[in-house]
Amino acid sequence: MNMGRRQFLQMSGAGIAALSFTATPAAKLFAAPGTGAAGVGMCDWNLGESASPEAIPKAKQASLDAIQVSVGTAPDNMPLREQSVRNRYLALGKQYGISFSSVAAGGILNRIPLATEPQSAVYVIDAVEAAAALEAKNILVAFFGNGDLRLRDSMGEFRDLGDGEFSSYELDSQKVTRVVEALRQIVPRAEDARVALGLENTLAAHQNLEIIDRIGSDMVQVYYDVGNSWGNGYDVPTEIRMLGSDRICEVHLKDWDTKMLGSAEGMVDMRQCARALDDIGYDKWLVLETSGRENRFIPDTKTNVSFVKQTFRMA
Questions:
Q1: Domain tally for the chain?
Q2: pLDDT at 163
Q3: Which among 34, 39, 82, 260 counts the fewest CB atoms within 10 Å?
Q4: Cα 299–Cα 45–Cα 252 angle in degrees, nearest 5
């Protein structure tokens, strides 16, 4: 991030300038009333055991409240299809006081994209069914790697049409249309299960809203990742306010420049994110997508959890 962009973020958007971000991490940074986030979870791939209920005791040890569960890692490894695995999650979750914030169709969709591979729709349906079984309210539908919806030029580069301060990438219209058509077919299952389809991708907020409007269902929302969005050059606080709480099903917290949230070395200004989420009355899960520093998972995760609970409004 260049200094001009950082300065702009510090001065723009719905009263941000009125808030001092020099406060200590322990300061509660909110101005408007709201219920606050449901708690702090973590992706199971950061716990080190994707699609395995045996990660639950480790989550408890690290002071987490919830886990984002992977539906599977490969076509021949989809554990959450099995009722016995779901039952094990529910039993251990009850034993250790761990909830399941969401189910992720992540890595598998990044390798076998919804935009180009018809079989990928099955994995999304798997995730919806698993989420309903685990009493999770949403799933993550990923669009990274092979699944990226941005248009590449002849050199394989993404075309940034932004104004120089913030990015705005040209989209691959054919891929976007394929995704819209696929999700329209899946939406009735999600609506019946009352499970939101959360789009996590590299697009700007207004582009995601256009996709959601084309699909035409309130059950299609944005799975917002502050690290990805900040790193791709988007105005994160403004995007959060643009989307609003009813269009954000869940939030990933991470920083590409450091494993420790809120660090001076970080790229993402978590305090601005906290203020924006409070402004929209966000009351769902905050999910860590960071494992801490090497060989320091437990102490670093506890530190990150503490930072989140001190910085973001919690229920």
A1: 1
A2: 86
A3: 82
A4: 80
Instruction: With residue 173 as reference, give the H or E element that holds it.
Output: helix 173-193
Tens of pLDDT along 90-145? Answer: 999 999 999 999 999 999 999 999 999 999 999 999 999 999 999 999 999 999 99
For 299, the token pair is: 């102490």
* Residues 183/195, Cβ–Cβ less than 8 Å: no
Structure tokens of 165?
Answer: 């301060």
Helices (H), 51-172: 56-61, 83-96, 107-111, 120-134
Whether 275 is covered by a domain: the verdict is no
Side-chain-side CA neighbours of 256 within 13 Å: the count stands at: 11
Residue 31: inside a domain: no
Return d(Cα 271, Cα 141) in angstroms, integer: 27
d(C-alpha 233, C-alpha 164), whole Å: 9
The two structure tokens encoding residue 122: 């099955």
Dist CA 297 CA 307 (whole Å): 15
Count of C-beta atoms within a 10 Å radius of residue 217: 17
Percent of the chain with pLDDT over 90: 88
In a domain, 302, yes or no: no
Residue 217 pLDDT > 70, yes or no? yes
> Which amino acid would we find at residue 214?
R
Does residue 64 sit within a domain?
A: yes
Tokens (6 digits) for 38: 């449901």
- Tokens representing 232 are 């791709």
- Kindly report the CATH number assigned to the domain that includes residue 68: 3.20.20.150
Residue length of the chain: 315
Question: Can you give the pTM of this predicted structure?
Answer: 0.89
